[in-house]
């Protein structure tokens, strides 16, 4: 148990200063423990957000010695024995008081990012393979601490870009949905390019550096998104392939009509176009009426036909793709190549009840 | 309010005087990058315009900086693909490939990070202020052409084939240290080229359903593993390129003889 | 006090933005009601994110023999038959639908080979039943519901041009008082944490989804938000609380190092092969299998180890006993001097499977301890001990509508704040599905209640003024008591005297100390202004923590038996007579806590038939069985 020197920014939007404190530090403590001790002993009104104190909720984002960190995930043992620790609020967002900032920018951007578009499948009929969901699952680890949004120089150093730039958090959201095996929209990448400001990113990777969940934001989300935009816009071979195969004219390949801000227009009780869910298909007889239409998640038309993956009974894939029921798509011409078939209503087999 | 229900009515950020409060040596990595890249560019420029000591006739060693040798001053044996270009001091011997290699590296997702940080200071390091008043990223000319990385990748694959040809051809006369260096260089070049983010995307990253494309999924997994080393490979290939070129130069200039294992 | 108070008009106000609150809000909004969500912290940070194991639902994906009846049976067994049978029944029946619904909102659960939702084993569940995403299921759930709310807002925006025309989230807002008109809910009064400004939401229906009470305990896995706000609001509005004596202590919380003290080690560590050892290195759980469970659990280490690969032909390892049994066993080991220095035991996976498998199956456990405490669970055992985790007690509700009983009308409760569903002990994984099932019902029935009203209840300005004065009092009190000290004192009383093992003398002592504390809390003061002042916020929360703690202590003293989350050292056995009784807490006119006994509803024959008589005879009196 020793006393250590800390500097903490105190103030609000009208101004503030870094104040000095000497606080007791015990073995195995993290910076958030120190802040709590400060509150309990010297500065009861020191404002600081926190919730779980376990690195799972992403509330205690702050800048510790100038680096965006989670207070609960920064062990005191990572500092030198007599090192002064300076704690300041996130710089990119307007300050409310002390270490608390107004992070509403992120919630605004979240609202502008088009949500998951459910396919025309009844609840309970969703079938996805683990290998297909893994990429999106990585992005769903995000705890929304907004450290990536805070550290990204596009908005950190250039306030004026905030209107046009959604930030890394919402790029991984767009990537997550674009890689979601059953998402019914195909225009996520165009949206990211046109409305989220994907082009502002110059891949300097600071978002990846600060991510407490170690999500490879740049390598696994932003660059793939950029590459997907390139597919549509700049790749010579894809362009040629489209011309030859006339993919552009395949019905249903065009993105669904979108309303303002890329949100599909749908009324509050407006029943979407898909087939209704077969009620009571489950073994659990609900005493309430079936879920309401919107809740049942029926998507608009624009169907991607569900297909069984070419896996054997052991869940593994065949060695040769050519032996599989549906051989791999022609490489640069797109994996979702569909023949101009009429839309077929497909019912996945009943869950086996052996 | 944090509900995003109210506009940010002129709220201001925390007034913190220091531009950065980072206490570590954040300036060190960009400095290393700056020095490393600058040194390499200077070396490469000097070599490309030397127009000599690029081919060892006895052992068929051709430096990658002059491959394929296409001007009509190319020495006998070096020009494997004809000599359609005229002699002019500003025109490198490999004038048809060097621009693409340069483009490939300039638009590479790793090098972009490296030079945006080290040369353009945008930003020099995380949570250290950008050195510029305005910033539009890669949304407009000229930086929007960073998206041409895909073209450059296709070109780089072709050039890697040519480099492989050069390395293979050198085995016609036996095996020496030069062969080993050329071969090592080509292997690393392939590793760098295949670990490219564009390659990862083409290999399988663009797919929505891996489970329907098992072979491409495997290839994607392989490229993804390489891809995590893209930065290391970028630096290693700079090293092997310079080393290979220097070795060929030294042997061609007669500074030292090639160490032969099998003649 | 004259100041302008921001007023809003809503149909349904949902207090709490965790799983239950968000699910309720979605349902109310789908029913066409204008809905407000009150979140004590930022939107999406609720304590639900901490849930790791999964959501229990008898979908039968992993074992086709599973169905709602088995799930119901497990839930009743886990709760030692003190559950409200109807809630347990509804929960078991509706959980699968609620999980599947999440997929339509965009949730990505782990998959089985044939592409269905993968289900995992968990303590107390007969079959693999927990839908999960690695070990961050709670995060997935909260994010999915959060994103569904956003998508509803987007639909509203497309239609009306305003994102918040039908559903609005008030983040970092605390409700301090429910405002009544006679016996009907008329609104909710609270403050924005950020500015300290007050707001009044006028609404005829309020859904409580505020979670639990863990912050009254010294070692707890709960976040600061868990101060029993909903419990206290309900009491003050005239509702009743039941089963408040039952608190779940998670058997395996970290006890060392201090930076992770109280943080849970998920049960899946044990489900995936982790074993408990005392400081002598002995795997001690075999000695603590109660007779009721003797038939389902292995006697020998060999059989237990075989179960992991061949669950059909072997009995389960005793590490997978219900939580209270495990917690009690650890407690006994530590008290017998066979614990670690920091008062825990060892939980070891490092010697049971290869490091890479641990990292793959328990990624966030591994990540969390590596980052938080520099402990590598693939190399060394963890030091664990009981942590206050969940309160089974809560607002007494009607099972079908979730409407609070008592004198109040228009109040609904779902999730941890409601009581009855879990009986005396909750099975792991049942809380996440509980949130969804009863969250939906709460939203649905709150909306129906509003539709059935012929006029909106009017609130009296005097009530709002009184609420304002109460809220401002700590700020103006010169030289009041430090709220942090008071909280620590309260935590000490509850942790030491009303903890996992209880005795009559200690409980009486606790009640006396709580009375003293109550006097001190009445004099609490908070320095500083109204803007984001944590001391002031805590001072206001203390009032709620006091009331709820008193309920717990009183009920714990009253119930003279040991059952589930309530262990009396002086009454170590379970009593069939006590099983027929719920203890009901309410406030009398003077505002003091009052405790009544109430008969438990009788299970109908068709549900009773799901159990064999031999099993029932362990819980029920002869008259009941006759």
Question: Overview of this structure, please?
Answer:
The complex is a heterotrimer of chains A (about 350), B (about 260) and C (about 625). Chain A is an alpha+beta fold and about 350 residues long. Chain A has ten helices and seven strands. In chain A, the strands form two sheets. A five-stranded mixed sheet of chain A has the order 2-1-5-3-4. A two-stranded antiparallel sheet of chain A has the order 6-7. The radius of gyration of chain A is 25 Å and the shape is elongated. Chain B is about 50% helix and about 5% strand. Chain B contains eight helices and four strands. A two-stranded antiparallel sheet of chain B has the order 1-2. In chain B, α2 crosses α4 (about 150-170). Chain C has about 625 residues and is of the alpha/beta class. Chain C has 19 helices and 23 strands. In chain C, strands 7-3-2-11-18 form a five-stranded parallel sheet, covered by helices on one side. In chain C, a hairpin with a 5-residue loop joins β22 and β23 (about 595-600). The longest helix of chain C has 25 residues, at about 535-560.
Name the helicity range of chain A: 25-40%
- The third-level CATH topology of the largest domain in chain A is Fumarate Reductase Iron-sulfur Protein, Chain B, domain 2
Question: What distance lies between the first and last C-alpha atoms of chain A, to the nearest angstrom?
Answer: 62 Å
State the fourth-level CATH superfamily of the domain at 256-386 in chain C: Succinate dehydrogenase/fumarate reductase flavoprotein, catalytic domain
What layout of secondary structure does this protein have?
The complex is a heterotrimer of chains A (354), B (263) and C (626).
Chain A: E1 2-12, E2 15-25, H1 31-41, E3 61-64, E4 67-70, E5 85-88, E6 95-97, E7 100-101, H2 104-112, H3 130-140, H4 147-151, H5 153-156, H6 168-179, H7 188-195, H8 206-210, H9 217-233, H10 236-245
Parallel strand pairs in A: 1-5
Antiparallel strand pairs in A: 1-2, 3-4, 3-5, 6-7
Helix pairs in contact in A: 3-6, 6-9, 7-9
Chain B: H1 28-48, E1 55-56, E2 61-62, H2 98-106, H3 109-118, H4 149-169, E3 175-176, H5 177-194, H6 197-205, H7 214-227, H8 230-252, E4 260-262
Antiparallel strand pairs in B: 1-2, 3-4
Helix pairs in contact in B: 1-3, 2-4, 4-5, 5-8, 6-7
Chain C: E1 6-9, E2 12-15, H1 19-30, E3 35-38, E4 55-56, H2 68-78, H3 85-104, E5 119-120, E6 130-131, H4 137-160, E7 167-170, E8 173-181, E9 184-192, E10 198-202, E11 205-208, H5 229-237, E12 241-242, E13 247-254, H6 268-271, E14 275-277, H7 301-307, H8 323-335, E15 345-348, H9 355-361, H10 363-373, E16 382-391, E17 394-396, E18 411-413, E19 418-419, H11 430-452, H12 461-476, H13 483-497, E20 501-502, H14 504-521, H15 534-558, E21 567-568, H16 576-579, E22 581-587, E23 593-599, H17 605-608, H18 613-619, H19 622-625
Parallel strand pairs in C: 1-10, 2-3, 2-11, 3-7, 11-18, 17-19, 20-21
Antiparallel strand pairs in C: 4-6, 5-6, 8-9, 9-10, 12-17, 12-22, 13-16, 14-15, 15-16, 22-23
Helix pairs in contact in C: 1-4, 1-11, 2-3, 3-11, 5-15, 9-10, 13-14, 13-15, 14-15
